[in-house]
Amino acid sequence: MTNKEWWNEETVNDNTSDFLKLKVGDTKLRVLTNFTKVLTLFKGVYPNSKYAGHVSESYVPKEGESIQLSGWAWVIDRESGDLKIAQFGKGILSSLTQLKTDPEYSYDGFPMPYDVTIKNTGDGPNRYSIIPARQNTDVTEAEMNMLNKQKSIKDIISAIVEKQNKNAEVSQAKSDFEYPTEEINSSDIPF
What we know:
It is a single chain. The chain is 24% helix and 27% strand. The protein is α+β, with helices and mostly antiparallel strands. The chain has one domain. It starts with a helix and ends in a 7-residue tail after the last strand. Residues 1-15 and 170-177 have low confidence and may be disordered.
């Protein structure tokens, strides 16, 4: 099965996960929190590489390993109304930063004052584009209450790392993991 076919499967829109899945087409969302920087280790060659856990910035990949950088944040998935953890790569993060510096769409922190629609063509490295809403809208009190009940992204990453370190195969590769302490500052993007 090719990567394109995988993205077109019906299961991509499965809303049972706490993680946002960007389907082919439009995904409308509101970014609620700043992004936390996460480095993920993969073994093998894309697109068949296997997830191997999270690593610190000091980890040096071995032959056949690669590190993917992403930013994680809480978002509201406007289709389901649920809070989800978004895992965005450099392309989407850079696009959000460009909005922050645009006179028409600038914003000073989180939650963002407007929704964005992420368009996914399903093809190639430049498959994502972002379209901001034309009007600012408030995040509702109910939405903020949902957010306030959630663990922080840093706590979630820490729990994931703790679980991965219980797995002997994974923990051997990342004995130097340090819990991420920094949030991604918009001036740091692109990484």
